[in-house]
């Protein structure tokens, strides 16, 4: 009887142990803590957690690989402000170099906060358990809204100035006069080109009269070949000047 009771107790204890184990696995799977999987921890510091919470996923190269296991505030000596330190769990198959970039991001516009590890060139040393990384500060939604409002205000002010400029009557008159002058200048140029093409006027004759063009071309070619002729005077011209 005692032996049967003992076996029953052992059986009950075994069932309870199996139940507890299954419960732990289920809870760890739901919470994402990967208790049964081997891994290591890294420390990441930021000036602000920016809304990230314990249990937040950690992406490595865009793939969810780990999670944030702990968050605490580090108080430093004044005038240095406090920092936030995140403890990140990663599996052993994830290799992070010291030149990696860590930042807090968001799934979608208003989604869950998560930690993103962007691998570097791989030139830094391989990080080990409890090593420290300095996180890259992200622009908060409040700062983004403020900057957007400033840009919109500047754009609105600029549009107002443009409307004021073009809405001025004197400016309209000046623009109309400029356009009219441009039309008249274009018409004049068209008339000049038409006359040149038809051979009218001095420029037209020069360009269109082949004989005159040949004479001018020959004269220029002669001067290029014998530039000294510009300074040469015939003897008769010199005697005439002396007699005068």
How do the helices and strands line up, and which of them pair or pack?
Elements: H1 2-31, E1 39-46, E2 57-60, E3 63-74, E4 83-91, E5 101-106, E6 113-118, E7 131-134, H2 141-167, H3 169-198, H4 201-208, H5 210-225, H6 235-243
Parallel strand pairs: 1-7, 2-6
Antiparallel strand pairs: 1-4, 2-3, 3-4, 5-6
Tell me about this structure.
The chain has 244 residues and is of the alpha/beta class. The chain folds into three domains: 1-31; 39-138; 140-244, no CATH class. Helix content is 49%, strand content 20%. The chain is built from six helices and seven strands; from the N terminus they run H-E-E-E-E-E-E-E-H-H-H-H-H. A seven-stranded mixed beta sheet has the order 5-6-2-3-4-1-7, with no helix packed on it. Helix 3 (169-198) crosses helix 4 (201-208). It starts with a helix and ends with a helix. The relative contact order is 0.08.
């Amino acid at each position: 009887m005692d032996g049967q009771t003992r076996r029953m107790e052992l059986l009950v204890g075994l069932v309870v142990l199996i139940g507890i184990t299954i419960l732990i696995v289920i809870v760890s799977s739901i919470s994402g803590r990967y208790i049964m999987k081997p891994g290591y921890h890294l420390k990441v510091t930021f000036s602000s957690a920016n809304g990230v919470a314990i249990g937040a996923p950690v992406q490595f190269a865009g793939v969810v690989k780990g999670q944030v296991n702990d968050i605490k505030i580090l108080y430093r000596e004044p005038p240095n402000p406090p920092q936030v330190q995140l403890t990140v769990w990663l599996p052993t198959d994830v290799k992070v170099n010291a030149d990696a970039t860590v930042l807090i991001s968001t799934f979608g516009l208003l989604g869950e906060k998560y930690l993103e590890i962007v691998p570097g060139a791989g030139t830094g040393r391989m990080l080990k358990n409890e090593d420290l990384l300095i996180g890259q500060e992200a622009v908060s939604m409040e700062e983004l809204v403020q900057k957007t409002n400033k840009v919109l205000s500047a754009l609105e002010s600029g549009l107002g100035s443009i409307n004021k400029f073009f809405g001025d009557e004197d400016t309209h008159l000046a623009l109309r006069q400029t356009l009219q002058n441009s039309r008249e200048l274009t018409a004049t140029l068209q008339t000049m080109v038409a006359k040149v093409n038809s051979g009218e006027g001095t420029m037209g004759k020069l360009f269109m009269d082949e004989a005159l063009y040949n004479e001018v071309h020959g004269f220029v070619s002669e001067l290029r070949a014998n530039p000294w002729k510009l300074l040469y005077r015939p003897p008769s011209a010199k005697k005439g000047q002396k007699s005068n």
